[in-house]
Amino acid sequence: MIEFGDFYRLIASGPLSHWLNTLPAQLTAWQQESLHGKFRQWFNAVDRLPLLTPERLDLLHSVRAEMDAPLADGQKAGMENLLRNLMPWRKGPFSLYGIDIDTEWRSDWKWERVLPHISPLAGRTILDVGCGSGYHMWRMVGAGAQLVVGIDPMQLFLCQFEAVRKLLGGDQRAHLLPLGIEQLPELAAFDTVFSMGVLYHRRSPLDHLYQLKNQLVSGGELVLETLVIEGDSQQVLVPGDRYAQMRNVYFIPSAAALEGWLAKCGFVDIRLADLSVTSLDEQRRTGWMTSESLADFLDPDDRSKTLEGYPAPRRAVLVARKP
C-alpha cells in the first residue's frame, strides 16, 4: 500500500502543519473505502519496479534519468513492461534509463509556454491542482521549488507518479495526494498554486477560483491554464452533452471573461500570459496512449471545429495574485 508518512513528517514543522489535523484521517478513509478495482494491479507494478538513483538527472529541461552504463537488456525490458501496465500515460514525456514514455500530451510544450511568465519558483512551496501523473511537478522541482504538492483523485495517476518517483531515487521534493481541491481545508500556505486543465471540468468555476485563492499565502501567485473561446468579456460557451467528446465540460469563457471572473474573486495583477490553439502534434495517440485523441475529436472536414461543431480547443494561461 502507498504510504504517506514521509509527507506527514515533512510538513509537521512548517506552514502546512495544521493540515495534519484532517489529512491523515482522509487518506486512511480513502485507503479503506475508495480504492479503484484495478488499484492493486497498478500498485503491484509500482512495487515491482526497482528503486534506482540516477547518476544523471535533468528536471530543468525535461524529466530524464540516466545511468553512466546502460541497464542490462533484461532489466530494461522488465521495467518497461511494468510501466506499460500503468497505461494510458497522458501527461509527459518521461525518459527513464533509456525507456521513453511518449505520452498523449507534450506537456513540456505547455511548460515552456507557462514558465517565462510566472514568478521564479526557487524556494517556493507549490500546489499543483489536477496534477495528473505529476509531470509538471517534476519540472517545478527542476525550477528550484522547495516542495511541490500535487492533488488528483485519479488513482492511476498516483501510481504513475509513484513509479516515476521510485525511478528518480525516491525524491522527496514532490508528493501527490489522491484528493480533489474541494477536500482541502483553507490552508493559505502555498506561494504558488497551479490549476492547469481543470477549470472547465468544474460545475461552479467561481467556487474553484475561490478554492484556489484559499490555498495561497497573501501575495501568492495563481497560474491558471484552461480552455477559452474567442470573444469579449461577456462571452461564455456552455457546451451540450459533450465538448470534443468530453462529457464533463461545463463552462468555457473567453479570456476576457476569465479575467473578469478572477477579479470578481478578488485576485489582482491579472494578466493574460499566453494564448494558443492545441495542435495535433501536442495532443495525439501514441504507443503509450492508444485510444482516441484530439484528431478523433475534431471535425475531419474542418479542424477548426470539434465534432459537435464548437470551436476547436484553444487554451489560455492567466497569472494573478492574491492580495
Automatic annotation (TrEMBL):
EC number: 2.5.1.-
One protein family per Pfam: Methyltransf_9
Protein family per UniProt: Belongs to the class I-like SAM-binding methyltransferase superfamily. CmoB family.
Role: Catalyzes carboxymethyl transfer from carboxy-S-adenosyl-L-methionine (Cx-SAM) to 5-hydroxyuridine (ho5U) to form 5-carboxymethoxyuridine (cmo5U) at position 34 in tRNAs.
Signal peptide: none
Gene Ontology biological-process annotations: tRNA wobble uridine modification
Assembly: Homotetramer.
Name of the featured protein: tRNA U34 carboxymethyltransferase
Record GO terms (molecular function): methyltransferase activity; transferase activity, transferring alkyl or aryl (other than methyl) groups
Protein residues bound to carboxy-S-adenosyl-L-methionine: 91, 105, 110, 130, 181-182, 196, 200, 315
Gene3D superfamilies: Vaccinia Virus protein VP39 (3.40.50.150)
4Fe-4S as UniProt keyword: no
Catalytic activity: carboxy-S-adenosyl-L-methionine + 5-hydroxyuridine(34) in tRNA = 5-carboxymethoxyuridine(34) in tRNA + S-adenosyl-L-homocysteine + H(+)
Keywords: Transferase, tRNA processing
Enzyme class: transferase
InterPro entries attached to this UniProt entry: CmoB, Mo5U34_MeTrfas-like, SAM-dependent_MTases_sf
